Amino acid sequence: SMKALTTQKKASKFEFIDDEAYLVVSDYLQIEGKSYVLENILHLSSDTLVGAYGKNEFVKRITRYNEQMFNDSLTQVKNRRYYDEQVAGMPVQAVAMIDVDRFKTINDTWLHKAGDKALWSVARAIYSCIRKTDILLRYGGDEFLLAFEEIPRDVFARKLDEICEAVRELTVPDYPQLHLSISIGGTYGQGRLQDMLEKADKALYEAKKQRGCVIIRA
Fold first, then answer.
1. Which of 49, 81, 121, 172 shows its CA 20 to 30 Å from the CA of 145?
2. Hey, which bits of the chain come out as E strands?
């Protein structure tokens, strides 16, 4: 519904609750100059899903499809498409942009295979520090986006420091000589993810001048 409201277009998705499947369709409407979203939920019964594959196979195929469409194949976290289509307009409390320091030098010195393993390792390190409900995605190149729907300000600051330390302690598979660090720009305060992202990106620009540090701006 948030996606339909922000894009002013129809949006749909499959939702699974226990063993039941639902199709959710959100329609954007304007009534007397005001914006609304009409959400329609269709329960997909066993009869609806029975066909060539049956219900269980249908669920597996949709799950695989979603994973392939919204997961980054290298790092196995969410991808830019997931941001654009699913979460850009959602309300969040804190956002961080994360950049791998001197990443071009890694590719130039040890070639792209080392760069790929470095990105995978960084993604694993970040993921090990956050909750399953937090949003982590590869925003592009060597940049990651991290968003929290709810988190106390002091915990947010500690979490970003913890992530920096986890990356500094990394050992990249097959490349023990690589010593990685990241720069993080963060922002705190309720707002839509796409708006908060702009503020976090500005903070990241400051952090990259120093490298290996965290800078948080309101």
1. 172
2. 11-17, 20-31, 34-44, 91-100, 135-140, 143-148, 182-192, 214-217
Ordered by where they begin, the domains of the chain are 2-70 (no CATH), 80-217 (3.30.70.270)
All residue ranges of the chain with pLDDT < 70 are 19, 45-67
Angle of the 153-168 helix axis to the 103-127 helix axis, nearest 10: 120
Question: Could you tell me what percent of the chain has a pLDDT over 70?
Answer: 89
Strands 20-31 and 11-17: antiparallel
Judge contact between 176 and 117, C-beta under 8 A.
no
Could you report the per-residue pLDDT of 166-203, keeping only the tens digit for each? 999 999 999 999 999 999 999 999 999 999 999 999 99
**pLDDT the model gives residue 10:** 83
Length, in residues, of the chain:
218
> What element of type H or E holds 106?
helix 103-127
Contact of 145 with 139, CB cutoff 8 Å = yes
Q: Which residues pair with 172 in a beta bridge?
A: 175
- CA 96 – CA 80 distance, rounded (Å): 15
Question: In the prediction, which pLDDT does 168 show?
Answer: 96
